[in-house]
Amino acid sequence: MRTEALILAAALCGCASSTAPDPGLEGLSIDKVAPGTIVPGTKIVVKGASFVDEQWGAATLHLVGKAGGKSVDLAWPAKFVDFNTLTVAVDDAKIDGLGGDVDFFGTISVDIVAASDGKTYSTDVLTRDLNFRKQLTPSVTGVVDGVAFVNDEIEVDGFGFLLGGDEGQTVAQVSGCFKLETSSSCVPIATQEIAMQPREELSREHASFPFSPKIAGIKPGTFTGKVTIFNKHANGASVMADAIDVDYDLVTAQVFSADPPKASLGQYVFVHGGGFVGGDPGALTELELTGTFNKTGMSPAPITMNLIPEFVEGRLVRYVLNTDDELGTSLDLRTETGKFTGRITPIIHYGGDTVRGVSSQAAFDIAPVKQVVWLEYQPSYVEGLRDFGLRAVDHKIRERILVELARIYQGVNIEFRAEVPTDFALYEHVALVGVDPNNQGLFGYDNSPGKDNGNVRLYDQLGGVNAKTQQDGYAGFGGVFLRSLMGFSKHPGSFAKSVPGADPVFDQLFDPFRADRDGTPVTSADLAGNLPLLTDGNACPGSDRETQIQCAIFVLGNLVGGTLGHEIGHSLGLANPYQEGFHNIGDAPARLKDSGGDRSFMERAELMGQTPAVFCDEEYDYLRQILPSSEAPNTVERPTCF
């Protein structure tokens, strides 16, 4: 990363500038620009590091070199996707401006004008060739044929395939005849067009299309015919490649395996195999389970039931354990566990036909109910760390947040994740954002509708806007709001208003890094050595800069983690389980579910010998009941709830 103004100054004086760069742009770099061939409608994808949201910097993709024999120096606006990805939309005007069908040879970089200081920060340059075309003619070098299941992905290799979206669509036109396994004649089929998708991200050379049941149905047999690839551009132009002869032996649907070996309410069981259908009218895959089910503590009993999974693609369906179908009504998935042993058979339905597939041996356990929580750190939260001068230690703070949550929920079957869960259909979503959109200065807010006694829902969303809670007269926006924590400062400035519990220790911790208090924000230079997380606050606020940084991470992680623990507790049915009320009555030391105003900064920060806050005795017993865990209970001394 470099700043143009700083580079010039350094070159003139022969020394590094003493001015710290924008902390969000430290490490700004570019690694990849794709695809290599660009047509109207293409979104160029730029991969790198330390990109920032538009409110913190305007990004451009800078191309310098030759195109069509002419020198070019272009700056195209880039859109922030995440901290590692930008996109640039290319239209006809951009390509016409380059001269139409031309090849670019030169360097590419990303420039960002930072909102924090008005300076331009640029990546190092990437030498890259790009091909610009008004349209693409597909060329096919090979189409895989042979034995296949219905809906198998048919691989097509070649050149010049479209990527979909605003470019248009590459399609496979399939024509020929089909001979049923039980027949001697090959019956002509209606020509079908099936959309193709890249097999590799942004690849114009490797694509595939599913051998849809629209082509020849779901029964086993032999297909003989041709595949013709068309590029259907967004402007209406259609260009085709030469047809390729193909032969396919279509086989009966089959189950190969099921995973994971244990699953709980709201979790997916992934069933792998071939020949699965779904997603179209009249297309349905059933799973027949036959065998025994051994409910924990009881004798095995015979079982036969049909389940309806969700179609993912021809080789995969997924079934979510739920309370509504045959399995969910025969077993209390919230309180009962057990083991299924037997066989799974696929039954395929399409267009009036039904085919019973090949079964497979399978076994899986019904596990105790688990609450999965996705912690979504939104860009406004990450950039909000600038208020505290701690943007550069975002990941260190996240580590401390998870440590705090693990302490609070030790012995409870709950799991916190930083990425969207793909193995659970039912999970809680908590948004961490910069500013309270309710304009109430809240640290956090559970905006799920109504008290969820027993944690029946499993899918609460603490984030975004909930119209139902607004109708009830409550704040509509939920989540955890970082900037509001600045209310613990005696001099929060424009960030917040001081709360009644504002504490000078807060300012001793964070003033050294707050730019608005003439502090020096943490930068990568501060992280050059080892910076382990503190396990307690005995050394805080700290006298040297390294300890001060460690203390700031420790305390902010505790503040955010404790707020998360409190708000997630609401969504689980606390406080006062199965009774009215959302907070403990009165005030007691180290009680997590006391009202916010009853919990001091020092208690939340876990400083000066303050006991870390926990759930009171009855609340913890309730959590262990509704989310039972094999992990030993936390043995800390807990305050009473009343």
Question: What does it look like?
Answer:
The chain has 642 residues and is α+β, with helices and mostly antiparallel strands. It folds into 4 domains: 29-132, Immunoglobulin-like (Sandwich), CATH 2.60.40; 139-250, Sandwich (Immunoglobulin-like); 254-366, Immunoglobulin-like; 373-626, no CATH class.
- How many domain modules? 4
Mean pLDDT: 94
Distance between the termini: 57 Å
Beta-strand percent range: 35-45%
Rg over CA atoms: 30 Å
Shape: flat
**What percent of residues adopt helix (DSSP H or I)?**
10-25%
Class derived from helix and strand content: alpha+beta
Low-confidence stretches: 1-20, 467-472
- Biggest sheet, open or closed, and with what strands and sense? 10 strands, mixed
Number of helices: 11
How many strand elements?
Answer: 38
What attributes characterize this protein structure?
single chain; 642 residues; alpha+beta; Immunoglobulin-like; 7-stranded mixed beta sheet; 38 strands; 16% helix; flat; disordered N terminus
In short:
The chain is of the alpha+beta class and 642 residues long. The protein folds into 4 domains: 29-132, Immunoglobulin-like (Sandwich), CATH 2.60.40; 139-250, Sandwich (Immunoglobulin-like); 254-366, Immunoglobulin-like; 373-626, no CATH class.
